[in-house]
């Protein structure tokens, strides 16, 4: 069930992205030939007006076929409703509509989380315990609020230094459970994979209610803030300041399934972040992406003349091949990780 929920959630993000392109293209009077969910030979299709709507078996994406959008395709150059013959501002609106649809989705999900579950504070809680771990054996429970470790306050977004530096020496963990405050002594164990000393818990953050106006304000700015953090992380990966960690649809679906197993809140938070990531990534000025097409449109506007169609088509094709290469590599990595975990 969690896998099915993950696939549906991922497909929904793609549909909303392509739906943004589709809706704005129609509002701008452009001819849309096809709206596809998935790739491959259609399992189901129907035609309404000039557009064919189809559902395909490979749920790894989707596309909206707007007449004239691809530089290499043939079309009637006298047709006022094809993409190249519409005003430049309309073309730009169509290009950014997909990412903006993802940002809007992220804001709406964030608003639902703020109003339904509240906002994260800096107070750390125990979200989950590993069975048989030192924390479980010492009597720590899920939902306990973590206050101090060896007298040092515990923050939700920071590692617990006293545990990592313990070398296995018992650590005094002060907690609040309901109205009671108590101290548990826990001896960390060395993780054979990472070499870190751990007690076997997943740390979460205490949430507090958010007023409606504050929730609206924070939900609106969340996509921009999250995009900035993602771009920073991407830069640090490229610069070698942090370990590169990329996932394709297989890895993303696996993480979504895990989030669904943990509960609705974790699943919604992941949907929110994935929606921001999908919008941010497509706005990057890279060939074959919405941002790359917008870059060519901007160059055309500055030159007061469209870039040569064959040149643009070649650049986008090269970009698409490179992106597909990365896609194949990360998908292979995701499948390999799943097999290794299953074997182990």
Structure notes:
The structure is a single chain. This protein has about 350 residues and is α+β, with helices and mostly antiparallel strands. The chain has 2 domains: about 190 residues, no CATH class; about 90 residues, PDZ domain (Pdz3 Domain). It has 9 helices and 12 strands. The strands form 3 sheets. Strands 5, 6, 7, 8, 9 and 12 form a 6-stranded antiparallel sheet that branches. A hairpin with a 6-residue loop joins strand 10 and strand 11.
Number of helices: 9
Radius of gyration: 24 Å
The CA-CA distance between the termini, in Å, is: 24 Å
Total domains: 2
The percent range for helix content is: 40-55%
Going by helix content, strand content and strand pairing, the class is alpha+beta
Which parts are unreliable, with pLDDT below 50 for 5 consecutive residues or more?
Answer: none
List the secondary-structure elements in sequence, H or E: HEEEEHEHEEHEEEEEHHHHH
Total count of strands: 12
Strand residue percentage: 15-25%
Average pLDDT, all residues:
87
The coarse silhouette is elongated
The biggest beta sheet reads: 6 strands, antiparallel
